[in-house]
Amino acid sequence: MLPRRLTRPRITLGSPVQLLLLAASFALAAYAGVRLLADDWFGVALWFVGLALLHDLVLLPLYTIADRAIVGGLGAVRRREWTPYVRVPAALSGLLLLVWFPLISGRVDRRYRTATGLQADVFLARWLLVTAVLFGGSALLLALRVRRAAQHRPPAAR
Amino acid sequence: MRDPDAPRLPSSPGFWRSPLRGPWLTSVLGLVLLVGITVLFVTGLVSYAAYNPNLSPVNDKTPDKGILGFYLFAWPTSPHWLYRLNQGVHVTLGITMIPVLLAKLWSVVPRLFALPPARSLAHAVERISLVLLVGGALFEFVTGVLNVQLDYVFPGSFYPLHFYGAWVFFAAFVVHALLKMPTVLRNVRHLREEKNDLVSPRPAEPTVSRRGALGFTGGASLLLFATTAGQNFDGPLRRTALLAPHGGVDPGSGPNGFQINKTAVYAGIDAAETGEDVWRLVVTGRTGTVRLSRTQLAELPQHSGALPIACVEGWSTSDQWWRGVRLRDLAALVGHDDDPPDVFVESLQRRGAFRSAALRANQVADPRSLLALHVNGEELSSDHGYPARIIVPAAPGVLNTKWVTRMTFRGL
C-alpha cells in the first residue's frame, strides 16, 4: 500500500494575483447577481446558463455543419474555389435573420403594430430582398471572375 | 475521404480543424470587443442615469441598486441631443458588435471542451468566471436585441435584468481583460509568434485567410450598422434602416407623421376623456390647485422649441418643432415663481411602465421644457399625446409624458 500523501493528486494554487483579481470580480458579480436573481432566480439563471449552452452546443455546431456542407458540396463538384461566393451571402443573410428574428418571423406582429403604428409585415419581405441582393451580387462577382479566368486561360490549356 | 483516425471527441485538440483559429485572430477580436463593450457599458450607465432613478420611485425600476448607483447625477438638459446621441450609440454599436462577439466565441470554442478541466486552482476559478463572461455577454446582447423588437420573453422587467446583468457581465469582463491583456499585446505586436492550444494540430486546407475572416466579420458588422443606424434620422436616411424596428417609413405623413413609441390605442387612451369639455389639466403647487381647460392653456404665453424624441430602444427622430406652455410658467402659476421645484407628472395612460414620471428641478427650470399643445405647426395628434404632452431637452422618450392630466410641483 502506498503512503496516503502519494496517492492524493497534487492541486497547485496558480497565480495568487490572478486569484485575488478573480475574488474581487466574483464579489462584484455576486452583489449584482443577488439583485439580478431577486425576482425570478430560476428563470434568470436558466437564461444566463441556457444562452451560453444554446450558443456553444446548438448555434455554433449548426453553422459549422452548414459551412462544412457548403465546402464539401462544392468540393464534390470540384468547385471548391467558389466557397466564399456561397458562404458569405448565406452567413450574412443568416446573421440578419438571427438578429431580427422576432420582427422577421412576425412573432411580435400585433404588439409591434399597435404600439408603433407601423406595418409589421414588411420585415420578412425586406429580409428576403436583402438576401436576394446578397446572393445576386455574389453570383455577379462569381460570373465576372469565371469570365475573366476564361479570357486569361491560354487556348491550349483545354 | 474520411480519415479513420479523426478524433471523435471535441475534447481532443485534433477535433477542431479550422486553420483560422489561433492567438492572433482571438487577440484582434478581443481588442475590438474591449473597446466596443467598454463603450456599451459606459453608454448604458449614462442611459440609466438619464432616467433620474434617485429622484422618485416612479422613475426607478431598480430600487435595490445600492452602491451600483454610486455614480448617479442630476441629468442635464444640454446639449438637447445628449440622450439621442448616447442611446443611438448604445443600441447601434451593440447591434454592430454582434458579429465580433460571435466570431470571438467561435475562435475560442475548443477551450470549452479542453481537458483537463483545470490545471490549477486559479485556472479552475478563472473557468468559472468564464461562465459569467460568456453567459453575461449573451444575456446582455440577447435581452437588448429582444427589447428593441418589443419581444418581451425574457424572465422579468427589462430594466433590472439589463442593468444588473450588465454589472455581473462587466465584473467578469474586466478581470478577463486584465488577465489576457499581456498575451493579447504580445500577439498583436508579433514580438513572438505564439503557438497555443487554439492552433489546430491537424488543420484542414484553408478556404479563407485569417485576414479574410477578419474582413468578413467587419463586413458583417458593417451590414448590421448600415441597416440599423438610419433609425435615428428622419427623411431618406431612415429608409436605409431596412430591418431596424423604427427604420423604413414613418407611421404617418404631415406634421404629426413622425415616429411613435406607444400609440393612443396601445396606451388605452379613451377619446371621451380628452375632449374639450371633459379634459382638465390639474396643476398643484405651493399655493394650491389650478384646473385648466385646453383653451385656457392656449391663452397662457406660448413658446416654441426644436427638440427630438429619443427612445431607450435606440431610435430617435430629428428635431420637431414643439409649441406650448413653459413648465416653469406652470410652476409659477401655483406659487413657485423664482425657483421651480421638481414635478410629478401623471398621464391618462392606463397601461405601461411610465404612465407617471418625475422631472427634476433643473429640467423644469429649462426654458425649452414645455407642456406642448402643438407640433410642427399643428395640434398634437392623439398618438403624440393630445391634449398636452411634456417635452424636455435631452430627456429619455418615456419621461416626455403624453396625455398629461395632472402635474404636482414639489420637492421630490
From TrEMBL, chain A:
Residues annotated as transmembrane: 45-65, 85-104, 124-144
Keywords (A to Z) from UniProt: Membrane, Transmembrane, Transmembrane helix
The protein's name in its UniProt record: Uncharacterized protein
Native species: Streptomyces griseicoloratus
From TrEMBL, chain B:
Residue ranges of the TM segments: 24-51, 88-109, 130-149, 161-179
Record keywords: Membrane, Transmembrane, Transmembrane helix
InterPro entries associated with the record: Mopterin_OxRdtase_euk (IPR008335), OxRdtase_Mopterin-bd_dom (IPR000572), OxRdtase_Mopterin-bd_sf (IPR036374)
Segments forming domain Oxidoreductase molybdopterin-binding: 276-409
GO molecular function, one term: oxidoreductase activity
Protein name: Molybdopterin-dependent oxidoreductase
Taxonomic source organism: Streptomyces griseicoloratus
Organism lineage: Bacteria, Bacillati, Actinomycetota, Actinomycetes, Kitasatosporales
